[in-house]
Amino acid sequence: MDKTFVLGTGAVKGGTTWLHEYLLSFDAYHKGVMKEIRVWETATQPEFGEFEVKLFDVKDRGDLFRWTFRTFPAAYFRFYNRIYRRHRVRLTGDLTPTYTGLSADTFRRIRDGFARRGVKVKAVFLMRDPVERCWSQQRMVERMGRPERYIRIDGDTESNLLAYHATAHCHLLTDYHRTLANLEAAFAPEDIHFGFYETMFEADEIARLSRFLGLAPKPELVENRFNTSDKTSEISDAAKARIAEEYRPVYEDCAARFPVTREIWGGWKHLDASAS
Protein backbone atom coordinates (compact mmCIF):
# COMPACT_ATOMS: atom_id res chain seq x y z
CA MET A 1 0.00 0.00 0.00
CA ASP A 2 1.27 3.47 -0.87
CA LYS A 3 1.70 5.58 2.25
CA THR A 4 1.23 9.35 2.03
CA PHE A 5 1.72 11.92 4.78
CA VAL A 6 -0.20 15.17 4.24
CA LEU A 7 1.81 18.09 5.56
CA GLY A 8 -0.46 21.11 5.95
CA THR A 9 1.69 24.23 5.96
CA GLY A 10 -0.91 26.95 6.46
CA ALA A 11 -1.67 29.63 6.11
CA VAL A 12 -3.29 30.58 9.42
CA LYS A 13 -6.93 31.44 8.62
CA GLY A 14 -6.35 30.04 5.13
CA GLY A 15 -8.70 27.05 5.22
CA THR A 16 -6.75 24.29 6.97
CA THR A 17 -9.68 23.43 9.25
CA TRP A 18 -11.86 22.83 6.19
CA LEU A 19 -9.06 20.70 4.70
CA HIS A 20 -8.94 18.65 7.90
CA GLU A 21 -12.69 18.04 7.90
CA TYR A 22 -12.62 17.20 4.20
CA LEU A 23 -9.89 14.60 4.70
CA LEU A 24 -11.73 13.09 7.67
CA SER A 25 -14.67 12.36 5.38
CA PHE A 26 -12.55 9.70 3.62
CA ASP A 27 -11.98 6.21 4.99
CA ALA A 28 -8.48 6.36 3.48
CA TYR A 29 -7.43 9.08 5.96
CA HIS A 30 -6.70 8.95 9.69
CA LYS A 31 -5.93 12.14 11.61
CA GLY A 32 -3.30 10.64 13.90
CA VAL A 33 -3.35 12.58 17.17
CA MET A 34 -5.23 15.71 16.14
CA LYS A 35 -5.45 18.21 13.28
CA GLU A 36 -2.34 20.16 14.22
CA ILE A 37 0.36 18.77 16.46
CA ARG A 38 2.56 21.92 16.50
CA VAL A 39 5.96 20.26 16.75
CA TRP A 40 8.23 21.77 14.15
CA GLU A 41 7.61 25.48 14.55
CA THR A 42 8.14 25.34 18.32
CA ALA A 43 11.36 23.40 17.71
CA THR A 44 12.81 25.84 15.19
CA GLN A 45 11.12 29.25 15.55
CA PRO A 46 11.57 31.28 18.77
CA GLU A 47 8.48 33.32 17.84
CA PHE A 48 6.33 30.26 18.58
CA GLY A 49 7.95 29.37 21.89
CA GLU A 50 4.74 30.12 23.76
CA PHE A 51 3.22 26.96 22.30
CA GLU A 52 6.02 24.64 23.44
CA VAL A 53 4.80 22.13 26.02
CA LYS A 54 7.03 21.43 29.02
CA LEU A 55 6.75 18.08 30.76
CA PHE A 56 5.34 19.65 33.94
CA ASP A 57 2.72 21.46 31.82
CA VAL A 58 1.26 18.30 30.26
CA LYS A 59 -2.50 18.32 30.85
CA ASP A 60 -3.90 15.88 28.30
CA ARG A 61 -3.09 13.35 25.60
CA GLY A 62 -2.39 16.03 23.03
CA ASP A 63 0.11 17.77 25.30
CA LEU A 64 1.83 14.46 25.98
CA PHE A 65 2.27 13.75 22.28
CA ARG A 66 3.52 17.30 21.65
CA TRP A 67 6.09 17.01 24.42
CA THR A 68 7.19 13.56 23.26
CA PHE A 69 7.58 14.55 19.61
CA ARG A 70 9.37 17.77 20.50
CA THR A 71 11.76 15.96 22.87
CA PHE A 72 12.25 12.86 20.71
CA PRO A 73 11.69 13.87 17.05
CA ALA A 74 12.14 10.30 15.79
CA ALA A 75 8.99 9.38 17.73
CA TYR A 76 6.99 11.69 15.44
CA PHE A 77 7.95 9.68 12.37
CA ARG A 78 7.49 6.31 14.09
CA PHE A 79 4.06 7.23 15.41
CA TYR A 80 2.63 8.38 12.10
CA ASN A 81 4.23 5.50 10.20
CA ARG A 82 2.42 2.99 12.43
CA ILE A 83 -0.95 4.53 11.62
CA TYR A 84 -1.06 3.15 8.09
CA ARG A 85 -1.06 -0.49 9.19
CA ARG A 86 -2.89 -0.01 12.50
CA HIS A 87 -5.85 1.78 10.91
CA ARG A 88 -5.57 0.33 7.40
CA VAL A 89 -5.33 3.70 5.73
CA ARG A 90 -2.97 5.17 3.18
CA LEU A 91 -3.19 8.80 4.32
CA THR A 92 -2.49 10.57 7.58
CA GLY A 93 -1.12 14.00 8.31
CA ASP A 94 -0.25 17.00 10.42
CA LEU A 95 -2.11 20.16 9.34
CA THR A 96 -0.45 22.84 11.44
CA PRO A 97 -1.03 26.28 9.86
CA THR A 98 1.91 27.89 11.65
CA TYR A 99 4.24 25.65 9.63
CA THR A 100 4.10 28.49 7.12
CA GLY A 101 7.21 29.85 8.83
CA LEU A 102 9.31 26.68 8.58
CA SER A 103 12.67 26.78 6.83
CA ALA A 104 13.66 24.71 3.81
CA ASP A 105 15.93 22.66 6.07
CA THR A 106 13.03 21.79 8.37
CA PHE A 107 10.84 20.81 5.42
CA ARG A 108 13.69 18.57 4.20
CA ARG A 109 14.00 17.04 7.65
CA ILE A 110 10.31 16.12 7.62
CA ARG A 111 10.53 14.81 4.05
CA ASP A 112 13.58 12.67 4.77
CA GLY A 113 12.33 11.40 8.12
CA PHE A 114 9.30 9.89 6.41
CA ALA A 115 11.18 8.81 3.26
CA ARG A 116 13.38 6.56 5.37
CA ARG A 117 10.19 4.77 6.40
CA GLY A 118 8.79 4.47 2.90
CA VAL A 119 6.30 7.33 3.31
CA LYS A 120 5.77 10.02 0.68
CA VAL A 121 5.20 13.54 2.04
CA LYS A 122 2.80 15.75 0.11
CA ALA A 123 2.67 19.39 1.18
CA VAL A 124 -0.47 21.53 0.98
CA PHE A 125 -0.17 25.31 1.22
CA LEU A 126 -3.39 27.34 1.24
CA MET A 127 -2.93 31.09 0.89
CA ARG A 128 -5.30 34.00 1.53
CA ASP A 129 -5.23 37.69 0.71
CA PRO A 130 -2.66 38.99 3.26
CA VAL A 131 -4.92 41.81 4.45
CA GLU A 132 -7.82 39.43 5.00
CA ARG A 133 -5.58 36.81 6.60
CA CYS A 134 -4.16 39.22 9.17
CA TRP A 135 -7.57 40.72 9.91
CA SER A 136 -9.21 37.30 10.30
CA GLN A 137 -6.49 36.17 12.70
CA GLN A 138 -6.99 39.28 14.82
CA ARG A 139 -10.74 38.65 14.97
CA MET A 140 -10.17 35.02 15.92
CA VAL A 141 -7.94 35.94 18.87
CA GLU A 142 -10.42 38.59 20.02
CA ARG A 143 -13.31 36.14 19.70
CA MET A 144 -11.42 33.61 21.85
CA GLY A 145 -10.85 36.32 24.45
CA ARG A 146 -7.24 35.33 25.12
CA PRO A 147 -4.40 37.59 23.99
CA GLU A 148 -1.40 35.88 22.47
CA ARG A 149 2.22 36.84 22.87
CA TYR A 150 2.14 39.17 19.87
CA ILE A 151 -1.58 39.87 19.49
CA ARG A 152 -3.41 42.32 21.74
CA ILE A 153 -7.12 42.37 22.45
CA ASP A 154 -7.26 45.34 24.84
CA GLY A 155 -8.02 47.97 22.20
CA ASP A 156 -10.28 48.20 19.17
CA THR A 157 -9.73 45.72 16.34
CA GLU A 158 -8.06 48.20 14.01
CA SER A 159 -5.51 49.49 16.51
CA ASN A 160 -4.76 45.93 17.67
CA LEU A 161 -4.27 44.80 14.11
CA LEU A 162 -2.00 47.70 13.21
CA ALA A 163 0.10 46.95 16.29
CA TYR A 164 0.52 43.36 15.12
CA HIS A 165 0.70 43.37 11.32
CA ALA A 166 4.37 44.40 10.96
CA THR A 167 5.80 42.16 13.70
CA ALA A 168 8.24 39.36 12.91
CA HIS A 169 5.60 36.90 14.10
CA CYS A 170 3.03 38.16 11.61
CA HIS A 171 5.59 38.17 8.81
CA LEU A 172 6.42 34.51 9.51
CA LEU A 173 2.77 33.69 8.91
CA THR A 174 2.19 36.01 5.96
CA ASP A 175 5.42 36.06 3.92
CA TYR A 176 4.10 33.52 1.47
CA HIS A 177 6.93 34.15 -0.99
CA ARG A 178 9.39 32.78 1.57
CA THR A 179 7.20 29.77 2.30
CA LEU A 180 6.86 29.08 -1.41
CA ALA A 181 10.62 29.22 -1.90
CA ASN A 182 11.24 26.96 1.10
CA LEU A 183 8.67 24.40 -0.03
CA GLU A 184 10.07 24.36 -3.55
CA ALA A 185 13.58 23.86 -2.18
CA ALA A 186 12.47 20.78 -0.26
CA PHE A 187 9.80 19.09 -2.38
CA ALA A 188 9.39 18.14 -6.02
CA PRO A 189 6.72 20.21 -7.84
CA GLU A 190 4.38 17.23 -8.06
CA ASP A 191 4.48 16.91 -4.25
CA ILE A 192 3.22 20.44 -3.49
CA HIS A 193 -0.35 21.68 -3.78
CA PHE A 194 -0.88 25.43 -3.82
CA GLY A 195 -4.41 26.70 -3.24
CA PHE A 196 -6.25 29.87 -2.31
CA TYR A 197 -8.88 30.42 0.35
CA GLU A 198 -10.87 32.60 -2.02
CA THR A 199 -11.36 29.78 -4.55
CA MET A 200 -10.73 26.57 -2.61
CA PHE A 201 -14.45 25.90 -2.07
CA GLU A 202 -15.15 25.78 -5.80
CA ALA A 203 -15.84 22.35 -7.29
CA ASP A 204 -12.90 22.54 -9.70
CA GLU A 205 -10.49 23.36 -6.88
CA ILE A 206 -11.85 20.57 -4.70
CA ALA A 207 -11.30 18.20 -7.62
CA ARG A 208 -7.74 19.45 -8.12
CA LEU A 209 -6.90 18.98 -4.44
CA SER A 210 -8.48 15.54 -4.41
CA ARG A 211 -6.52 14.41 -7.45
CA PHE A 212 -3.32 15.59 -5.78
CA LEU A 213 -4.05 13.29 -2.83
CA GLY A 214 -5.43 10.42 -4.91
CA LEU A 215 -8.98 10.82 -3.61
CA ALA A 216 -12.35 10.88 -5.36
CA PRO A 217 -13.70 14.46 -5.12
CA LYS A 218 -16.62 15.21 -2.83
CA PRO A 219 -17.97 18.50 -4.18
CA GLU A 220 -21.04 18.16 -1.97
CA LEU A 221 -18.86 19.31 0.94
CA VAL A 222 -18.24 22.66 -0.70
CA GLU A 223 -20.73 24.43 1.56
CA ASN A 224 -19.13 23.25 4.79
CA ARG A 225 -17.18 26.05 6.46
CA PHE A 226 -15.34 25.96 9.77
CA ASN A 227 -13.73 28.50 12.11
CA THR A 228 -15.06 31.46 10.15
CA SER A 229 -15.17 34.77 11.99
CA ASP A 230 -17.87 37.29 11.20
CA LYS A 231 -16.82 40.88 10.56
CA THR A 232 -18.66 42.53 13.42
CA SER A 233 -16.81 45.80 12.72
CA GLU A 234 -14.95 47.26 9.78
CA ILE A 235 -11.42 48.54 9.56
CA SER A 236 -10.60 51.62 7.55
CA ASP A 237 -9.30 51.64 4.00
CA ALA A 238 -6.24 53.43 5.36
CA ALA A 239 -5.53 50.49 7.66
CA LYS A 240 -6.05 48.01 4.83
CA ALA A 241 -3.70 50.03 2.60
CA ARG A 242 -1.06 50.09 5.34
CA ILE A 243 -1.19 46.31 5.75
CA ALA A 244 -1.18 45.74 1.99
CA GLU A 245 1.89 47.95 1.62
CA GLU A 246 3.66 46.03 4.37
CA TYR A 247 3.14 42.85 2.36
CA ARG A 248 3.69 44.29 -1.11
CA PRO A 249 6.51 41.75 -1.80
CA VAL A 250 4.02 38.94 -1.08
CA TYR A 251 1.41 40.36 -3.45
CA GLU A 252 3.94 40.92 -6.21
CA ASP A 253 5.62 37.52 -5.91
CA CYS A 254 2.31 35.68 -5.80
CA ALA A 255 0.95 37.66 -8.76
CA ALA A 256 4.00 36.63 -10.78
CA ARG A 257 3.56 32.97 -9.81
CA PHE A 258 -0.23 32.86 -9.69
CA PRO A 259 -1.78 35.63 -11.82
CA VAL A 260 -5.24 34.79 -10.46
CA THR A 261 -4.30 36.45 -7.16
CA ARG A 262 -4.51 39.83 -8.91
CA GLU A 263 -8.22 39.14 -9.34
CA ILE A 264 -9.12 37.41 -6.09
CA TRP A 265 -7.06 39.36 -3.52
CA GLY A 266 -8.72 42.62 -2.56
CA GLY A 267 -5.51 44.10 -1.20
CA TRP A 268 -4.44 44.84 -4.74
CA LYS A 269 -6.88 47.73 -5.04
CA HIS A 270 -5.05 49.53 -2.24
CA LEU A 271 -1.64 48.88 -3.79
CA ASP A 272 -2.84 49.99 -7.20
CA ALA A 273 -4.37 53.13 -5.69
CA SER A 274 -1.11 54.04 -3.99
CA ALA A 275 0.79 53.61 -7.26
CA SER A 276 -1.53 55.85 -9.28
Automatic annotation (TrEMBL):
All copies of domain Sulfotransferase, residue ranges: 10-226
InterPro entries referenced in this protein's UniProt entry, alphabetically: P-loop_NTPase (IPR027417), Sulfotransferase_dom (IPR000863)
GO molecular function, one term: sulfotransferase activity
Protein name: Sulfotransferase domain-containing protein
Key word Nucleotide-binding present: no
Record lineage: Bacteria, Pseudomonadati, Pseudomonadota, Alphaproteobacteria, Rhodobacterales
Gene3D superfamilies: P-loop containing nucleotide triphosphate hydrolases
Keyword entries, A-Z: Transferase
